[in-house]
Amino acid sequence: MSDDILLSVEDLEVHFKTEGGIVKAVDGVSFQLKRGETLGIVGESGSGKSVTCNSIMRLIPSPPGRIAGGRILFEGRDLRTIPQKEMLRLRGNEISMIFQDPMTSLNPFLKVSRQLTEVLELHQRMTGQQARKVALEMLELVGIPDPSRRFDQYPHQFSGGMRQRVMIAMALLCKPKLLIADEPTTALDVTIQAQILELIRDLKEKVGTSVILVTHDLGVVAGMADDLLVMYAGKVAEYAPARPLFKTPAHPYTDGLLKSVPRLDEMEHTRLQSIRGLPPIVTKLPPGCPFRPRCDYATEVCGQDYPARRSFGGPAHFAHCHHPLQTPDEEVKA
Amino acid sequence: MSDPKPLLVVDDLKMHFPIYKGALLRREVARVRAVDGVSFEIYPGETLGLVGESGCGKSTTGRALLQLYRPTGGKVVFDGVELTALKGDKALFPYRRHMQMIFQDPYACLNPRMTVGDIIAEPLRTHGLTPDKGAMMEQVQALMVRCGLNPQYVRRYPHEFSGGQRQRIGIARALATSPRFIVCDEPISALDVSIQAQIMNLLQDLQQEMGLTYLFIAHDLAAVRHISDRIAVMYLGKVVEIADYASLYANPRHPYTRALISAVPIPDPEIELTRERIVLEGDVPSPINPPTGCRFHTRCPARRAHPEIADRCVNEVPLLQGDDHRVACHLYDIAEPRDRAA
Q1: Which of A166, A179, B205, B250 is least surrounded by Cβ atoms within 10 Å, i.e. has the fewest?
Q2: CA distance A21 to B237
Q3: Position B245 pLDDT exceeds 50
């Protein structure tokens, strides 16, 4: 494996035991993340995007969850097999995560200062005073006004946007190599969203962190991500660098998603092309391609076999579809 | 809209919520000025979009229009009748069937103990619109079909449906009394991306077929732009700009509108790379103690660039002025407003 690849997920499978049988929340997901780059994971609720992230952090509740297969290589080491002690050292130190809801992920009983310094004392073995100094600097870096006064306040005294900044400060304290942001701006207003995205972009440059950005908003990843992973029903629908994904999507689902969102720069009022039907119920997936019941291009073969991986204009862009909207490479050569 | 007679006129609407302290000697200590002097009109058959960040008073405005809250000041005139002058629920009752609401949360707005059929039939019963049971069932099923629901599911309960289907139930219920005006309060923000488009298309189809008038409240500017004829932008209880959709997005005048529009990401990496973003500092101030003068002055980037008006922004409340494209900003009180804004 080359050195510039920080994280490589191979054939990840995560199963959950439910009353309705075993749910394959993540089913054969693979991707790679280079150092300093941003990967966007896009999908609707239930597509497995959060479960993918939680498995990297080893945060899948077990039971009922279980990582059933695959490898998660972080700097060449498989996070699935390293001892728990080693994982505790990595988590919050080399890999950090920001969650969607900043209110429920901060401890309401502890002052912000305590929640920040704890990270440093634990991972970097700093003394209380050192940790306070570093944490205060970080609060300033993430743009909290009057940080020395805010430092000893409780989470409820902060607004939503400010709490998310505290979360980001906490995640970045140890200058992690990988930052996983799971819908970091979904709960926030657009102007605050712009602030937070700007902040992540800025810090990525200053600290050199690689980022996994999970979202359902294609607009958010358009300006942030180098590569994009589109997930549907626990599987990879399409994987591509940002430009070709938005410009020449190969999977009908990606295309449908792009066409179904109203755009601020549309000229006239047009009718949206919605994707028909309902999002899949993961316990009752049809055989073959999971998108088939909602797909305009589906034929008989789509109901029989899960489509193999096909690449488009090089191995960086691939999709799983029997009837892709672009010409696959194997047909170009033939 | 060329139709000269508006369906709904809102004049200086105020909705203040008192905050009390003390148990025995209860006294008012402060007021949340959720809506503080809002005026606009809505014409028959059009969609007025209402955008703003959370806490700006857009939902409160919608509810105060329908008299779900009784406004603490100002007038709401619906089809020539001054609703705010009617005393008591009885006097309002005959008008309620003409004004309905679609709610944001499709999980919370349906009674989990009622079947879908009962939920949709309730407004028919309340307003005594169909005395005959068989006819009512027919009407309910017709509404379900119209909203894209399988009429065989009439005896099912809300929990058996997905979010998008539940929103369709909410829409069918709102349509049951054949209203003329519907307040859509964030009807798509709780739904999955692929379902949002379905619901927006449904709302547009229904509007065309039934000649409905909408107030469409949302924080998603792209969605509001897509569905609205005219758009009002709110900030901290006031309308700062109101214009037709094309003009508002092509030529936003209020510094807040500009920042808001520039903050919305566009799903196209090439456009995103070159776009200039106005990032506002800080959070929205509290509506309990809003800033003096222009309420946006604490965050306004234009005020910093124009020291000649800086004092007026702090001391004087700007008026909403203009003909079709109205804006409340001191920048436009002075000569050659367009150059100034640049």
Answers
A1: B250
A2: 51
A3: yes
User: Could you tell me if A260 lies within 8 Å of chain B, comparing CB atoms?
Assistant: yes
Q: Which of residues 35-54 of B touch A (CB under 8 A)?
A: 53-54
- Summarize the confidence of residues A170-177 as an average pLDDT: 87
Give the number of A-B residue pairs with CB atoms closer than 8 Å.
Answer: 133
Kindly report the backbone phi and psi dihedral angles of residue B341, in degrees, each rounded to the nearest multiple of 5, phi listed first: -75, -25
- Nearest Cα of chain B lies from the Cα of A198 at a distance, in angstroms, of 8
3-state secondary structure of A124: coil
Question: pLDDT, tens digit, for every residue of B126-145?
Answer: 998 887 888 999 999 999 99
Gap from B164 CA to chain A (nearest CA, Å): 8
Beta bridge partners of B242: B232, B326
- Please tell me the distance from the alpha carbon of residue B303 to that of residue B330, in angstroms, as a whole number: 9
- The CA distances from residue B305 to B255, B313, B340, B341, in Å, are 11, 13, 10, 10
CA nearest to B277 within chain A: A194
pLDDT, tens digit (0-9, with 9 covering 90-100), for A21-79: 888 899 999 999 999 999 999 988 888 998 999 999 998 888 888 899 999 999 989 99
HEC profile for A245-279? Answer: HHHCCCCHHHHHHHHHCCCCCCCCCCCCCCCCCCC
**Minimal Cβ distance to A243: which of B222, B261, B269:** B269
Closest residue of chain A to B54, computed from CA coordinates: A189
Contact B54 A189 (CB under 8 A): yes
